[in-house]
Design goal:
Blueprint: H1 2-8, H2 13-19, H3 24-31, H4 42-59, H5 66-86, H6 89-101, H7 103-111, H8 114-135, H9 138-154, H10 159-177
Helix pairs in contact: 1-7, 5-6, 5-8, 7-8, 8-9
Length: 181
């Protein structure tokens, strides 16, 4: 579904303006457009540019959104795997279907917005947390932290997911410790 929308929808104009090295006056105009202040960090632009440069000849303007699309699709798989480990197969299936077909995420994945990349990285964080709770591996929690920080570097409000997830893990641990024998 995300790939279909990616083929149909053009990238957002703000993203294209940030990579348009030919039309510099356009960048200055857009940067001041209606007090537009993006909540994204430069890491998203760097990651998008890393795929834009080699794939522009093949994909044209859609190369701008390739990073966002790839990360959101990989994050979907990570979200499914992590949800299976944290909850049950049934809950994971329902949550993954909701995550995969949530209209806003489908559209922002296709349009190349930083929120899609951040949500995809949070899906990878859930996968690492799920594996960490199963194996009790500190390394997996470190990976989860790396994914969470990467999501924050894509889009600042993603830090809230780290706070909510940490609270959930703490409450889950407290609940396991207080169960009677």
């Amino acid at each position: 579904m995300r790939i279909l929308f990616w083929l149909i929808l053009p990238p957002i104009w703000k993203l294209y303006a940030s990579f348009s090295s030919i039309d510099l006056p356009l960048i200055n105009y857009i940067s001041g457009f209606q007090s537009y202040h993006p909540l994204r960090m430069p890491f998203f632009d760097i990651a998008s540019a890393a795929l834009f440069v080699p794939f522009e000849g093949l994909l044209g303007i859609n190369a701008l959104t390739l990073f966002s699309l790839l990360i959101s699709c990989v994050g979907l798989v990570g979200f499914n795997l992590g949800s299976r480990r944290l909850f049950s197969d049934r809950v994971a299936l329902f949550a993954t279907i909701m995550f995969a077909f949530y209209p806003k995420l489908v559209v922002i994945s296709a349009r190349g917005m930083p929120e899609a990349a951040a949500v995809g990285l949070l899906g990878l964080m859930i996968a690492s947390i799920g594996k960490g709770t199963d194996t009790d591996s500190t390394r997996q929690y470190v990976y989860a932290g790396i994914w969470a920080v990467s999501a924050y570097l894509m889009y600042m409000p993603a830090v809230l997911a780290g706070i909510v997830t940490t609270s959930y893990l703490y409450l889950r641990k407290v609940q396991k410790c207080t169960r009677p024998i």
